[in-house]
Amino acid sequence: MKDLTHCVVTPSVKTEGFVPLGIGVHRASTIAFQTAEDYADRGKRGPDGYSYGLYGTPTTRTLEAKLTALEKGARTFLVPSGQAANTIAMLPFLKAGDKVLIADSVYPPVRDFANMELVRFGIEVVYYDPVDPSDLEAKINARTKIVWCESPGSTTMEIQDLPTITDIAHRHGALVGCDNTWATPLNYKPLTLGADIVTEGLTKYISGHSDVLLGSLTVRDEKLTAPIRSVLGRMGISVSPDDASLVLRGFETLGVRMNHASQGALQLIERMQAADIVERVIHPALPTDPGYSVWKRDFHGASGVFGVVFKQGLSDRVSPALNVLKTFAIGASWGGTRSLVAPMPVKAYRTVRRWDADDLVLRISVGLEDHQDLVDDIEALLAEISR
Ligand SMILES: *Cc1c(COP(=O)(O)O)cnc(C)c1O
């Protein structure tokens, strides 16, 4: 072989006996075939085979298998973000004339997707009260193909009664999708409560280090895999093995991170509930929370993300006061090592269940710092708002 060819054709080395605990990053567009017949037959390799990088590598398949096991599903698909997981969970199952019912407390970009894209293709988009199944019952009909849930809801954190909702949806022939980003499959398993599809923003807790965007959708029934796989392939959606590898690494510490964050959240909540400028802390693990009994029944734990509502008239002071924070960073997303705060407006994103409190919820995501530094920061914030 001549030098230029040596540069291109890489020798294979022995891999037998090399058993690392980390997962290899397999980068590939082309997958080579032994024979022309193998190449011609590549379409018959099935969902677990390899034919082209777009359809998966051992790295992405490993992360998918881990999620499938934790969600107790049949198969998982990775997509470039949590938002992509939500849109791809709906698209394969909708056509013009169909109807989707979406929880009023849904992640706002899902609302935008439904109102701006689904409507454009002749799909009827209707919102339902996340905590009143009779509202869903009244709005569902034979044209309804998807009932979309998110529990707890974004920012206002309503807990949904998933077994009751899936029962209503299935009686009318609709599929149920549920965004599980807040709880992660460690704390909530929607597929075991009747949901057909569960989505995760892996960007948040599961990757856990604020440095990668990725999402997943897992189906309960193998029958749903073909439509999703076809849409992903036709739309050319795939994820990088480097990103999947970052998520696989973060995943290993998910349990200890969630534990530290949820403990820290409870300490901060205690301090905030005692402050007379705080109207209410929103967190389903509090016995005073309206969602507590359903949360207790269906969830295995809580995460470290919660909301704070201030007394009427104080919310104008909240955003400027955030500048006193030393340990918390100000920013969107959550579930990373660094604690975050973000002032979230609510009213513009509610059309069914009105939000009557002040139109600002301070979302707090507890990270992995020492809890005392976070308490000190929150003390300083409360003092600045009260000043
Ligand atoms: C952040 C978030 C997403 C989206 O995740 P990205 O990876 O940032 O697109 C989806 N659902 C919920 C509930 C979220 O909080």
From TrEMBL:
Name of this protein: Cystathionine beta-lyase
Pathway: Amino-acid biosynthesis; L-methionine biosynthesis via de novo pathway; L-homocysteine from L-cystathionine: step 1/1
EC number annotated for this UniProt entry: 4.4.1.13
Reactions this protein catalyses: L,L-cystathionine + H2O = L-homocysteine + pyruvate + NH4(+); an S-substituted L-cysteine + H2O = a thiol + pyruvate + NH4(+)
GO function term, MF aspect, one: cysteine-S-conjugate beta-lyase activity
EC supergroup of this enzyme: lyase
Pfam short name (any one): Cys_Met_Meta_PP
Keywords: Lyase, Pyridoxal phosphate
SUPFAM superfamilies (UniProt xref): PLP-dependent transferases
Family the entry assigns: Belongs to the trans-sulfuration enzymes family.
Cofactor(s) essential for the protein: pyridoxal 5'-phosphate
Domain of life assignment: Bacteria
PROSITE patterns recorded: CYS_MET_METAB_PP (PS00868)
Entries under InterPro entries matching the protein: Cys/Met-Metab_PyrdxlP-dep_enz (IPR000277), Cys_b_lyase_bac (IPR006233), Cys_met_metab_PP (IPR054542), PyrdxlP-dep_Trfase (IPR015424), PyrdxlP-dep_Trfase_major (IPR015421), PyrdxlP-dep_Trfase_small (IPR015422)
